[in-house]
Amino acid sequence: MDTDAFRRLWNELEPIGRTEAGGYLRFSWTESDLRLRLWFQAQARLRGLRCEEDRNGNLYAWWDAEKEQVVDPDRPRPLDQLTARKPRREGAVLTGSHFDSVPHGGAYDGPLGIVSAFLAVDRLRAEDAQPKRPIGIAAFTEEEGGRFGVPCLGSRLMTGVIDSDRARALTDPDGVTLAQAMRDAGADPATLGPDPERLERLAAFIELHIEQGRALDGSESPVAVATAIWPHGRWRVTFTGEADHAGTTRLPDRRDPMLTFAFAVLAARKEARLAGGVATVGRVEVEPNATNAIASTVTAWLDARAPDEAVLGEILSGFESKVTERAGRDGTGVAIAPESETPIVEFDASLRDRIAALLGGAPVLPTAAGHDAGVLSAHVPTAMLFVRNPTGVSHAPGESASDEDCAAGVEALAAVLRELAC
Ligand code: HGY
Ligand code: MN
Ligand code: MN
Question: Is the CB of 151 under 6 A from ligand 1?
Fold first, then answer.
């Protein structure tokens, strides 16, 4: 794959949803999302791929096999030998990722997997490959949870991990529900829900993604294969106190939730450091948010992740006990509510090893970032490819990858699709 082909396609997408400062505001069911959807559909049409949108707003572009083979389920087929799973009805190999970003996020997290998928199809077509299985390209909606607060919403709905009524009622920071946002965008929220038939038609899902770390920096290989996703979650922490005058209220008389909040941020970091995980508070809302008033309520979101469930549990229980104790001393209230929790994901080891070997012994590495591949892996043999990120920066405008490494990622994805579907 020459870097010009990558750069040409990348340049079409890059300006959509980008701010003056270079970060991205690509939120599901907004104007930039609709422009990205139109771009996806145009790319599918350009290639003669059958485009469809599922009941949850996820998009697909299908390269249908000449004839979809339905074979005797007892006769293992090449793909089934790649995975430890029971033989599956002949099925499609799906690749792709997501378009949406965190607020002011980077350009590559998500879109790189979609652009690379279209280019991998181009690569296979250039060698006149004839897929024996349908090859699909997916754009999953609301992977970051940047608008409605629950990550991987499109794939969680598809796999039934989240209740569709709860999803419809999720609100964005302006109080707009997902249902209303979909209606405003001309989509029907009534259809949200599990899609087992579609899942059953998948034989494998391969997600290519920019690496969100520096493990490949300095490595011989610009591409790695994922082993696992750390268990992680996000919790809404509500601190309540007593609004009052910033000037006339004596210190001993105060019940200031901002104090307990400040303690909680430091406690999260300390518990994570001691336990061997990570914890972040990057989002906070204050009421009434006035310079000269003691806050009545502070709402903050804790993002915690760890190499295993025991360490994650240690972080959460340490955090909860220390913050509750502090709230008692501050005379404030604290409530911790889970918004999304993701168990550890171990990707299909035989598929992982087969792909690493196919890519000439590509490095294998875990990630602490969540992905739709993590959600789908409970239902479909799933693998992830990571493309080198020299700085490791992600979820920020500085996120980047070289065109050479992105082109190498396309070659790797094409090799995997060739192996699994052709
Ligand atoms: O938050 C994450 O780990 C992912 O980037 N959505
Ligand atoms: Mn992300
Ligand atoms: Mn992502």
Answer: yes
Please state which CATH class domain 232-342 belongs to. Answer: alpha beta
* pLDDT, mean of residues 284-306: 98
Pocket lining: 372 vs ligand 1, CB cutoff 6 Å: no
The tally of CA atoms less than 13 A away on the side-chain side of residue 258 is 15
Q: Can you tell me which atom of ligand 1 is nearest the CA of 305?
A: 3
All residues with CB under 5 Å from ion ligand 3: 109-110
Calculate Rg over the CA atoms of the chain.
23
Residue 3: count other Cβ atoms within 10 Å of its Cβ. Answer: 16
Confidence (pLDDT) at 2: 84
DSSP 193-230: S--HHHHHTEEEEEEEEE-SSSTTTT-S-SEEEEEEE-
- Pick from 410, 414, 418: which is nearest to 5 by CA? 410
Domain boundaries, the chain: 3-230+344-421, 232-342
Those residues with Cβ within 8 angstroms of residue 31's Cβ, 6 or more apart along the chain or in another chain: none
State both tokens at 270: 């300390």
Q: Listing from the earlier edge strand, what are the strands of the sheet with 278-287?
A: 278-287, 297-305, 232-240, 333-342
d(CA 266, CA 63): 51
Confidence class for position 206, pLDDT limits 50, 70, 90: very high
Rounded to the nearest integer, the mean pLDDT of the chain is 94
Angle between the N-to-C axes of helices 111-126 and 403-421, in degrees from 0 to 180, rounded to the nearest 10: 60
Burial of 108 (0-12, 13-18, 19+ CB in 10 A): buried
% of the chain surpassing 70 pLDDT: 94
pLDDT tens track for 378-405: 999 999 999 999 999 999 999 999 999 9
Query: Residue 373's closest CA among 243, 207, 211?
Result: 207
Mean local confidence (pLDDT), 350-364: 97
- What is the pTM for the complete model shown? 0.93
Determine the pLDDT at residue 79. 55
Do the Cβ atoms of 324 and 334 come closer than 8 Å? yes
Predicted local distance difference test score (pLDDT) of residue 66: 64
* Most informative mutation of 212, 301, 393 for ligand 1 (most atoms within 8 A of CB): 212
303 lines ligand 1 (CB under 6 A): no
Contact in structure between 347 and 81 (CB atoms under 8 Å): no
For 3-230+344-421, CATH number out of 3.40.50.720, 3.30.70.20, 3.40.630.10, 1.10.10.10 equals: 3.40.630.10
Give backbone dihedrals phi and psi of 383, rounded to 5 degrees, phi first: -140, 160
